[in-house]
Amino acid sequence: MINLQQQTQLTDRFGRVVNYLRVSITDRCDFRCVYCMAENMTFLPRRQILSLEEIQFVCQAFTELGVGKIRITGGEPLVRQGAVGLLQALGRLPLRELVLTSNGSHLAQMAADIKAAGVKRINISLDTLDPAKFKALTRTGDIEQVLAGINAARHAGFERLKINAVILKGRNHDEVCDLLQFAVDRGLDISFIEEMPLGRIDGRSRSENFYPGSQIREDLQRRFKLTALPEAGSGGPSVYYQVDGGHSRVGFISPHSSNFCGSCNRVRLTPEGRLLLCLGNEDAVDLKAVIRAHPGDMHRLKQTIVNAMQFKPEKHEFDIHEQPVILRHMSATGG
Ligand code: SAM
Ligand code: SF4
């Protein structure tokens, strides 16, 4: 057992420092994006997921172990009742950055309160600018609601806003330039994401729709001048470029065409309270069992987290051409 007294930062057995926690506060969502969920999903019963107080307790433990950045995600985090109250509570923790990922559907009403809670940046998902394609990709979403959400967030004054776009061949790959132009016109950043094989989805083959990040970059460079940015040392999976003639940065999250595991600095908390040590592996430690068996025992929780770092795998095992080995969906993972 590692001695908690000497622990000022979380380090795994490969020497990687873990200073970033992503927290999925619900597996539920008002959308059913084709790459993320099946059309008919069974969601977790309420008693199985962590309460907001339990989430706050776990987040506090992580900050005491040197974690400076927390991202709240889901599912759609803003569909969980009390989400803003949780953000307010987390905003009082000694964090360098509290950030959020959202599909944007509730931002028109909530952006100002989220900013006031102390959230610095939001990533908002938008895969297409075409209303019919948007409906087809999200199954239930309304693009107007999301565009209104993006506008509200722009006016609320966040440090940075970023669009996340998952690109699928034959569905939206022909829109990458228009999506970048949308971001540039509004001073937003944008990340283009390769689809990851998380969870069984229905109706199509993931490998047929695979569109590599390198191809997206080539498509963009026909219309935009992109300058590679030096690695920001964030430990993140994105490679970033500055778009000439604006403030926008464009990122590529390419788990298949380039492996980013060597500098991984993050772990994830699932809605059920499992501490997931890698997005692409099943290794996890059940923190809910610890906090429910020993309520309020911060020392025990921190010791469990410190010990868990020894199980963080070296790298993900994604293969787009195989059936998913990871059966949980991104929504239950904290993407
Ligand atoms: N509901 C919020 C949203 O859509 O932004 C937050 C949760 S969502 C799971 C987080 C991010 O994961 C989104 O940008 C989404 O596009 C992405 N995502 C979901 N399933 C994915 C998959 N199979 N491969 C790659 N990205 C995925
Ligand atoms: Fe919901 Fe986000 Fe998954 Fe789409 S990607 S179904 S918005 S959780």
Task: Give a written overview of the molecule.
The chain is an alpha/beta fold and 335 residues long. The chain has one domain (4-168, 263-333): Aldolase class I (TIM Barrel, Alpha-Beta Barrel), CATH 3.20.20. It has nine helices and 14 strands. Helix 3 links the parallel strand 5 and strand 6. S-adenosylmethionine (SAM) binds at residues 29, 35-36, 73-74, 76, 101-103, 125, 164, 166, 193, 195-196, 198, 330-331, 335. The site of S-adenosylmethionine (SAM) has 19 residues, from strand 5 and strand 7.
- Which architecture does the CATH hierarchy give at level 2? Alpha-Beta Barrel
Task: Quickly name the level 1 CATH class.
Answer: Alpha Beta
- Count helical runs: 9
As a whole number of angstroms, the C-alpha radius of gyration is 19 Å
Which regions contain 5 or more consecutive residues with pLDDT less than 50?
none
Order of helices and strands: EEEHEHEHEHHEHEHEEEEEEHH
Largest sheet: 12 strands, mixed
List the helices and strands and how they pair.
Elements: E1 10-11, E2 17-18, E3 20-24, H1 52-64, E4 69-73, H2 83-91, E5 97-102, H3 107-117, E6 121-125, H4 131-138, H5 143-156, E7 160-166, H6 176-186, E8 189-193, H7 213-221, E9 226-228, E10 238-243, E11 249-253, E12 266-269, E13 274-276, E14 284-286, H8 287-293, H9 298-308
Helix pairs in contact: 1-2, 1-9, 2-3, 3-5
S-adenosylmethionine is lined by residues 29, 35-36, 73-74, 76, 101-103, 125, 164, 166, 193, 195-196, 198, 330-331, 335.
